[in-house]
Amino acid sequence: MGIPSRPDPLAFLGDELGALRERHLYRPLRVMSSAQGPIVSLDGRQVISLSSNDYLGLTHHPRMKRAAIEAVERFGAGSGAVRTIAGTMTLHEELEAELARFKHTRAVLTFQSGFTANTGVIPTITGETDLIVSDELNHASIIDGMRLSKAPRVVYKHADPASLREVLAEAVRRGRDGQGEPYRLILIATDGVFSMDGDIAPLPAIVEVAEEYGAAVFVDDAHASGVLGKDGRGSVSHFGLEGRVAIQVGTLSKAVGVLGGYVAGSQSLRDILIQRARPFLFSTSHPPAVAAACLEAIRIMQEEPELIERLWANTRRFKAELSRLGFDTGRSETPITPVILGDSETTIRFSNRLFEEGVFGTSVVFPTVALDRARIRTIVTAAHTDEMLDQALAAFDRVGHELGVIRG
Asked: Is 264 helix (H, G, I), strand (E, B) or coil?
């Protein structure tokens, strides 16, 4: 006797996928069959990659690989538990101590990703008696962290300290009860570097406003880690604001080249996160190989400054040549260089043609960015050679003329 057919309660998902394909917004996964690097094998094709967050080329650095292998030999493949039970190894403690020294903070706590760091720290330290003030273009992980908090929130115009001051002044005037009752904590949250446009937050002005109102500043430095500041310490170091920013969230998954995230700040902040941050409490700790490779990466960043120098030399050259060709790179100040084309369909076609030309540049369209701001999001790294960049720029030139994006 056959199984009776039943209606599929998830049938609507097929309709939603069809709608995405109709609007040219569906993104299939490309599959890599090589190590991460400036040239990769993607969907069976060898291409120059301009889509990796591996800013310093550390994913395949010999010292990193050696550190990971030695950790596996000594400690095994996995940790076997959450940190609060039996999953805290000496490697985790060593990594956090090294990160605290590196960031010039009292303490650091690592998380499984930058995303879980944000969704761990924000709801842990804020509640109904607090206020969160957020840049309108903050990363999704900050937004989700705010959603998990019971704290009310207000939004200021992107990277606009005048808007921040105006929004904050009104919130303080009204207070948490509408009658001027002060908030326990006001937390101003911003990215250090914004991941879609590559611009840097005006941290000095944000800190000035925060200090005027007795607020704490929270900076997500995912795309500033390993890129800005002394030895890649981030945007706080870049602006010389050590000691004036309460919370720094960083990533171990981009310039550091491995996996994870961390929260840097006071010892009390670390201690309360260990007791209450749900992603920390309910997730198995990093495998030994991950912790050891991250630890080695922090050392490499300080001992091999030529990597950051090469990253910035490549960045300046690539931006200048794109501008010379007639492309709009927006307000980028960092290795994140958007090539803004406007129309989503044209942008996806452009990305596909680049791939055929041997260059992998990711298309980013609505709703990730505004409908008329679709772009190819590129990132050059320290591992790209001049020859690779020449080939990539030539491909942009050819495809740009072919699709009528640039003329002349």
From this structure: strand
Q: Residue 16 corresponds to which tokens in the numbers above? A: 């939603």
**Residue 357 amino acid letter:** E
Amino acid at 127: G
Cβ neighbours, 10 Å, residue 40: 19
Return the SS3 of 317.
Answer: helix
- Selected from 3.40.50.720, 3.90.226.10, 3.40.640.10, 3.40.50.1400, the CATH number assigned to the domain covering 62-303 reads 3.40.640.10
Distance CA 78, CA 290 (A): 10
CATH of domain 26-55+305-402: 3.90.1150.10
State the average pLDDT over residues 2-12.
83
Q: Please identify every residue annotated as catalytic.
A: 195, 223, 254
Report pLDDT digits (tens) over 199-239.
999 999 999 999 999 999 999 999 999 999 999 999 999 99
Q: Where are the beta strands (DSSP E) in 16-152?
A: 39-42, 45-49, 107-111, 131-135
Please give the full DSSP string across 122-135, using - where no structure is assigned: HHHH--TT-EEEEE
Q: Which two tokens stand for residue 362?
A: 């990711």
CB distance 262 to 99 below 8 Å = yes
For the record, the structure tokens of 88 come out as 């805290």
Backbone angles phi, psi at 49, to 5 degrees: -95, 125
Instruction: Please give the Cα distance from 156 to 135 (Å, whole number).
Output: 5
Enter the tokens of residue 232. Answer: 């890649």
66's tokens: 């050696």
